[in-house]
Amino acid sequence: MDDSLPPDLGKRVGDLDDLPPELRAQLQIGRIGEFERQIIELIEREYGGVANVDEVLVGLYRATGEIHQRQPLANKLYRMGQAGQLISVPRKKGVYRSK
User: Fold this and answer.
1) Number of H helices, E strands in the chain
2) Would you say 42 and 60 are in contact if contact means Cβ atoms under 8 Å apart?
3) What 3-state DSSP class applies to 38?
4) Per-residue pLDDT averaged across 73-96, rounded?
5) Domains and CATH numbers, the chain
6) What pTM was estimated for this model as a whole?
7) What's the gap between Cα 52 and its chain centre?
8) What number of other Cβ atoms are within 10 A of residue 44's Cβ?
9) What is the DSSP letter of 13?
10) How do residues 29-62 score in pLDDT, each as one tens digit?
11) Which of 9, 26, 71, 94 is most buried when burial is the number of CB atoms within 10 A of its CB?
12) d(CA 55, CA 62)
């Protein structure tokens, strides 16, 4: 038995507009949280579409007054890159580009 998974797993459901709101509320497909949206907008608006972890930390503080911990934020950026919400810049650790 082949244990490999298709690269588009979870993205094969197509257009969701025909689904009832009750079902769409249960899905996590394509859902982007407010914090993720805030990070993407910050990188685009304040840093011209590319930023490192330090810049995101400072930018979030200036935008919200909240102090975020570096490691959880770095983990969040990495996961956003894995999910296709950001692009990890090759050979530049901790540097991300908006899509």
Assistant:
1) 4, 3
2) yes
3) helix
4) 94
5) 33-98 (1.10.10)
6) 0.71
7) 14
8) 15
9) S
10) 666 788 999 999 999 999 999 999 999 999 999 9
11) 94
12) 10
